[in-house]
Design goal:
Helix content is 29%, strand content 27%. The chain is of the alpha/beta class and 381 residues long. The chain folds into 2 domains: 101 residues, Beta-Lactamase (2-Layer Sandwich), CATH 3.30.450; 228 residues, Rossmann fold, CATH 3.40.50.
Length: 381
């Protein structure tokens, strides 16, 4: 008899937090694809999938929300609570009187092997900054980074877990993070202090950080990087391009400051000796970035990771160009951009079904090879 996957058991636990009317909407086939359940008072239930939203006919009543509250107990100050022993999270929406009017139930999953493409970077002890839109799998990737580094590479790993999303709720971390230790962060404002405390008190070789979102966090991370501790972190930003424009967090990529160049020249009209100061403003990276590589999560079924050298990518963006030669990674692919666009098999595999590939393809000027031709029937050579 086959043994059920642990994730199936965790989904069964989550189902007990849902009222009967909602639970009946979620059959076994749907559970495997479900990412969120949305319950808003007086509105139809929404079941969210990776690329779709299923709006049900069942309308949420007060009794449905009360059922969830009874199971949860109490929400934290940030209106979140985890389901102990699992990776699931329940978040509350309140009205102006602080009455509960909605909940979002996010299904957390452990995907063993998700971090395997990043193993060479972990072996080289490079600092990795992970970026991507909400729901793209940043936290899932970090969980497996913690497992690979602590179990396979035998490193001393500490997870600084702001919302208990990496290691799950409760005092005992979820097995998904391997033998990594976990520091829970009571409030986001405490994160920068606990990052420094982790280094000073627990001698980690690698720190996995939930999300860097403030200037204080960025400064703490830069200080830790100078001490030789490897860092793997997510940051508040969808792409490297957006992070470069973020004044508070640009320190993560070396800091970006405006530089003005003045070019005094004689006025065409006016008194002799007058000067017209024409000033040019550019942006420059001012220091080496604390993260050597940036990992951008692409929103495709292959969970593709785009890895760029931070310094050269930031410099290129500031000059108005695309980052040079990023490496694209999946479980079966590890190629640079030029290799991807010159390999006929990859061109025809990705070209029609991956949005980001099509966008990059349009920017290329090199001629692409035609589709591979099948051998003529009967030709055995």
């Amino acid at each position: 008899m086959s043994t059920p996957h642990p994730a199936a058991g965790e989904l069964d636990i989550l189902m007990t937090y849902l009222p009967d009317g909602v639970r009946r909407l979620i059959g076994p086939p749907l559970r495997e694809r479900l990412t969120e359940v949305v319950l808003d008072l007086g509105r139809p239930v929404q079941l969210r999938l990776p690329s779709d939203i299923l709006v049900q006919s069942y309308v949420v009543g007060v009794e449905d929300l009360e059922y969830v509250v009874q199971r949860v107990g109490a929400f934290r100050a940030d209106n979140r609570v985890g389901v102990e022993g699992t990776l699931h999270r329940i978040s509350a929406i309140r009205n102006r009187y602080q009455d509960l009017v909605g909940v979002t139930i996010r299904i957390g999953r452990h995907l063993p092997g998700a971090a395997e493409p990043l193993r060479p970077w972990l072996l080289r002890q490079e600092n990795l900054l992970i970026l991507g839109p909400p729901g793209s799998g940043k936290t899932t990737l970090q969980r497996d980074v913690a497992r690979v580094a602590s179990v396979d590479l035998r490193r001393r790993v500490i997870v600084v877990d702001t919302s208990n999303e990496i290691g799950g709720d409760g005092n005992i971390p979820h097995p998904a993070i391997g033998s990594a230790r976990r520091i829970q962060v009571p409030t986001r404002a405490d994160q920068y202090r606990l990052l420094l405390e982790a280094v000073q008190n627990h001698s980690p070789e690698l720190i996995v950080i939930d999300e860097i979102s403030t200037q204080e966090d960025a400064a703490a991370v830069a200080s830790i990087a100078e001490r030789g501790v490897q860092l793997v972190a997510t940051a508040h930003g969808r792409t490297l391009r957006s992070l470069v424009k973020n004044a508070e967090l640009s320190l993560l990529v070396g800091g970006v400051h405006p530089v003005f160049f003045g070019a005094p020249r004689p006025e065409i009209e006016g008194s002799e000796g007058a000067r017209d100061l024409r000033r040019t403003r550019i942006r420059e990276r001012v220091a080496d970035p604390p993260f050597q590589s940036v990992v951008e999560l692409m929103t495709d079924a292959d969970r593709t990771l785009r890895v760029s050298d931070t310094s050269s990518a930031v410099d290129a963006l500031l000059d108005g160009h695309d980052p040079p030669s990023p490496v694209f990674l999946t479980a079966s692919l590890s190629r640079t951009l030029d290799e991807i666009f010159t390999d006929p098999a990859i061109v025809h595999r990705y070209g029609d079904r991956v949005d980001w590939y099509g966008e990059l393809l349009e920017k290329r000027t090199l001629s692409l090879p035609g589709p591979p031709r099948a051998d003529p029937r009967g030709d055995s050579r």
